Amino acid sequence: MSESAAVQKPPSQGIITTLLSWTGRVISALMVSLCFSLAAEWVGIAFFWPGLGAQHSHMMMRKELGWFAQNVQQSLLSADPVGQLEHCLQLTWQWLFVNTKVVEWLASLRIKPSGEIVRSAAVYGEAAIYITLTFVLRVFILLLTAPLFLLAAITGVIDGLVRRDIRRFGCGYESGFVYHRAKRMVLPVFFLAWVIYLSLPFSIPPWVVLLPAAFLFGITVSITVGTFKKYI
After folding, report:
1. Does residue 14 lie within any of the structural domains?
2. What per-residue confidence (pLDDT) applies to 88?
3. In angstroms, rounded to a whole number, what is the distance separating the alpha carbons of residues 27 and 20?
4. What are phi and psi of 163, to 5 degrees?
5. What φ, ψ does residue 153 adopt, rounded to 5°?
6. Which is a Pfam family this sequence falls into (predicted)?
7. Which of 15, 148, 159, 161 has the fewest CB atoms in 10 Å of its CB?
8. Measuring CA to CA, which residue among 187, 152, 142 is closest to residue 25?
9. Residue 160 belongs to what domain range?
10. Nearest to 231 by CA among 155, 174, 153
């Protein structure tokens, strides 16, 4: 048996495997973003705004809630986005911090006399609560902006197909190097926008990060489709 015959093609992934793979990637991106946001806030409390303590994260959460209530009155995915966001935040507060007695434990640390280390732990714990709620708020905003990235992807596919047909019928140059590099950048560009936006230790309008990210995502998709091989 020849060596080429012995080499077998790897089995193709099924729909369930693909869905599980994408679910794992999304969960991993969210967990990494939450860890980065907590680390950034704790580093800020230690070095950049020690006088504010947990008030910094609390003010950031209040500011983003105010921005959301003023600017997101309706959405393609939700008839009442403000009400649904409040419901999500209430569930997060109840299940993660009230039912687990975390809020009660932090309150006891602040009331009874304790050392500097214990008081600092209470401050960092309270900041973690506000950062987690802000994280849930930002994830909710990302879900509402899913049509933006979908539109960018569709636009990139259409533009790439047009340029590919022009290249096919016009004897254009075909570069496998560009195609493979652009293909590898599609998912990192998509998830990097999530990580950056969810990890920011300060409050900014979401469009400052998400609009350039959607534009770059669409360009990457367009390059990938446009440089696909001429003949299948």
Report:
1. no
2. 92
3. 10
4. -65, -30
5. -65, -45
6. DtrJ-like
7. 15
8. 187
9. 19-226
10. 174
| 210 token code pair | 């998400």
128 close to 38: Cβ distance less than 8 angstroms: yes
Instruction: Give how far Cα 65 sits from Cα of 68, 82, 96, 182, Å.
Output: 5, 9, 19, 37
- Give a yes or no: residue 8 inside a domain: no
The total number of structural domains in the chain stands at: 1
Model confidence pLDDT, tens digit, residues 178-209? 777 888 888 888 888 889 999 998 888 888 99
Q: Which amino acid is at 102?
A: V
Largest CA distance in the chain: 80
Q: What is the DSSP letter of 48?
A: I
Q: Which of 31-35, 75-79, 161-165 has the lowest mean pLDDT?
A: 75-79
Q: Residue type for 49, please? A: W
Record the tokens describing residue 67, joined without a space.
């921005």
pLDDT in tens, 51-63: 888 999 999 999 9
Q: Would 4 be classed as within a structural domain?
A: no
Tokens of 76: 């393609």
**Residue 169 falls inside a structural domain:** yes
